[in-house]
Amino acid sequence: MYVERVSRLVGAVVWSVGPSRDGAGRVLPDGCMDLLWNDGALLVAGPDTHAHLTGHAPGAWAGVRFAPGTAPGLLGVPAHELTNRRVDLADLWPAAEVRRLGAVVDAAADPADGLEEAALRIAADVPAPDPRLSRLVGALAAGRPVAATADELGIGARQLHRRSRTAFGYGPKTLGRVLRLQRALALARAGVPFADTAARSGFADQAHLARDVKELAGLPLRELLAA
């Protein structure tokens, strides 16, 4: 069973899921990156541009899902280097540092709690992220156009694109699409009719919503909600 809670790390979520018979699942793009634990191994999930199918990975999992744009500063890796990838933390960090964090997780009664403590220790040693990143996420999540958002932030289009790739793994237009998908799914899951969901989420019409959901999530909206 999947369980999540708000983390003590600002903007983050702590989650866990127990072993299932086949381990199969579908992770939808959300603009975030995760620090993962799976049966003693530490991994990093990069930002996705499409649904990630978990296949048949065995064992229990735990994770800390960082707020969009914050993980690269914590991990010291530009997000675009990890887009659509899952990698061992040992491929990004020195082995001694990975062992130190692993010991923090192993010492906890619950791996999810230990992973959160490890994330808090990482965050204590790095500067706070650029506040313009959270403003960008907030504007795009609210449906603001990219060009207008860039003007409001006082950032040129090219600089905004570079910063977005570093922080989110892709440009602001893709980030806007991902956040619009999440808005639509929240409404549809709450029972809002699909046509109203499309209008309220910023899609041109229901057909536009259907195309984006199929492209980003890999399933038609009705099947996605049923799954």
Report on the structure:
It is a single chain. With 227 residues, the protein is of the alpha+beta class. It folds into two domains: 2-124, no CATH class; 131-226, Arc Repressor Mutant, subunit A, CATH 1.10.10.60. The protein has ten helices and eight strands. It has a six-stranded antiparallel β-sheet with strand order 1-2-7-4-5-8, with helices on one face. Strand 1 (2-6) and strand 2 form a beta hairpin. The longest helix is centred in the last third of the chain and has 18 residues, at 172-189.
Task: List its traits.
227 residues; alpha+beta; Arc Repressor Mutant, subunit A; 2 domains; six-stranded antiparallel beta sheet; two-stranded antiparallel sheet; 10 helices; 8 strands; 47% helix
